[in-house]
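Working notes for the structural subgroup meeting. M.R. asked for a predicted model of this chain before we commit to crystallization trials. I am recording the input and output together here so anyone reviewing the notebook later can reproduce the run.

Input as submitted:
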Amino acid sequence: MATFLYKLGRLAFRRRHFVALIWVALLTLAGVGAASAPPAGSTSFSIPGTEAQKAFDLLEQRFPGQSADGATARVVFKAPSGEKMTDAGNKATVKKTVDELADGSEVASVADPYTGNAVSKDGTIAYASVRYDVSGMELEESTKHALEDAAEQARESGLTVEVGGDALQAVPETGATEIIGIAVAAVVLVITFGSLVAAGLPLLTALIGVGIGVSSITALASALELGSTTSILAMMIGLAVGIDYALFIVSRYRAELAEGREREDAAGRAVGTAGSAVVFAGLTVVIALVGLAVVNIPMLTKMGIAAAGTVAIAVLIALTMIPALLGYAGRRVKPAGAKGGLLGRRRGEPKKDAGPAKANLGTRWASFVVRRPLAVLLLGVIGLGAAAIPASDLELGLPDDGSQPTSTTQRRAYDLLSDGFGPGFNGPLVVVVDAKGSDAPKDAFTQVSDEIKGLDGVVAVTPPAPNKGGDTATISVIPDSKPSSVQTEDLVHAIRDAGGDIKADTGAETLVTGSTAMNIDVSEKLNDALLPYLVLVVGLAFLLLIVVFRSILVPLKAALGFLLSVMAALGAVVAVFQWGWLSGLMGVEETGPVMSMMPIFMVGVVFGLAMDYEVFLVTRMREAYVHGEKPGQAVVTGFKHGARVVTAAAVIMMAVFAGFIGSSESMVKMIGFGLAIAVFFDAFVVRMALVPAVLALLGKKAWWLPKWLDRALPNVDVEGEGLRTADERGSDPDEDRELVRT
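Returned structure, recorded in token form:
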């Protein structure tokens, strides 16, 4: 591996014009594809294998033309103080608004509040239901403007008017904090390298990689039904790993220059050593992201594959574009210890007669941990355990209008409906009765309706509404609890349990769907998939790390450390987004259940990123160990060469992820915070404290591998042993193919 990548790095350095041209051409091609691609259409959210999805599919078959997946809106009216919505003037205003809405070209139907029993008992609140032919993302802007204009005209009469539903669904925005995250990364790079040129290389290559990845996603969005969130998450992860991977190679290049190597040879060796770590670190991230497919939720699978593709591009760019740009930079990139540019000494010359070099902070910290490993280990584990405590109160759900900021019309409409009709009105359950196999369909419909009325937690049940064929009917059920509550979840299960007895009596099948039931099914499916996903991803990565480190205990320690950091991160997410701790600082206006996809998505992404630091830091330790250093000294040596760069990489990754906390999309905001805090826990507590403590305690046992397994495993030479052997022989590794086997 090291020898092959060494050759690749030297080739890219020599043929830099050709390499740069290829990547610029790919960026241009992806950009043209994105610009000419049709806008993204409907991003269907399907959950194969769930009852809610089965019922939804049945509705589309048995009720054709009713646009089961069409956008909906609820225009909510509230009368001024002292008036009723049943007053003549207010009724006239509502009637006019309904007529205006019905004229829309994409409107399927509008329900009049006064004929559809949509006025609250106290007469102060009413609502008109609007259904459209297309989904919220496919609605024309003119249709959305017409909806907003109709509401505004009704407000002019003195009514309070708000609009809920997904008809006003907007593409999420990330906000200015994303730019701030990149700016922080730039500052960290300048401080790390002491040169604007060296600092600019990781930023430039990361932006090129993200540009290619996101543009490709945009170009394919319509054909593959990729949502806007997919590109945002790909950008988030692609930026973070792209900067980090380039950072490690540039840092190693400067270290090789400091040893007196020629620039082309230094570029080859940087790619051969640090590049090997980049390849395996990238593989762990890709495995974790692609592994999301085991959940069998198409949207999550697409998000994972798209992000994995962006990571793969980041790896390829780091291995080829970085050495090419180093060739262009020439002497403007200084050797390590000879800072140039803004922060360096004139001409980048190191200070002469400085005496013995002072141990850097990484060396001093590692020496302390090696002397006090047990104390550091206990303190770190106890700290992460305390941070993980809130995770025991984890509640899962999917965001709805109730999680929107109070400044939005969707949230205000949600609150008005709760005040006028009860909290469960915002999450009605749709019961679908399939009586095709029943001898008396009408009797089956009535029996289902009567059975549901007798259940606890039910406020209202609408009469069965059969289709034209008379073999299927829908029944709306209003719970007495809000959509995201445990009581509503219990009611869904109670209806489904009752449906089993009804089927035995009548032959009719009872199914529960609707957004609330869909959310419940998603949460349950994700919970069921979490353990198999962990086994798959951690198992594959464990095998990969055995090959990399040629050890059993080091990969095991890496996996256990990851579990600690991800549990602590989930605890922090619960504390902020569910309990409300520091919610104002994070811009969280409304607390509630944690997004259902958050735990499994965090497990996937954080595992991949955690293994990045494990590979980058521990490969330096193993490199020192296999070259004859004692285990404790190898730990110190690894920190001497890698701690500063790993710290810079972690700060950069945290800054990039934290930049997405400013997103208007609650899902992106939550993931940005969760990944940022997870990187903090994993990099600074697990990798910087627990890893050296455990390795110090284990000593030589840490690098133990059964002889039969050592012979069976391929030698990927991540440490660059083949390159070192070539030095000792005085040969050129570019010409010695057999060295990689040593």
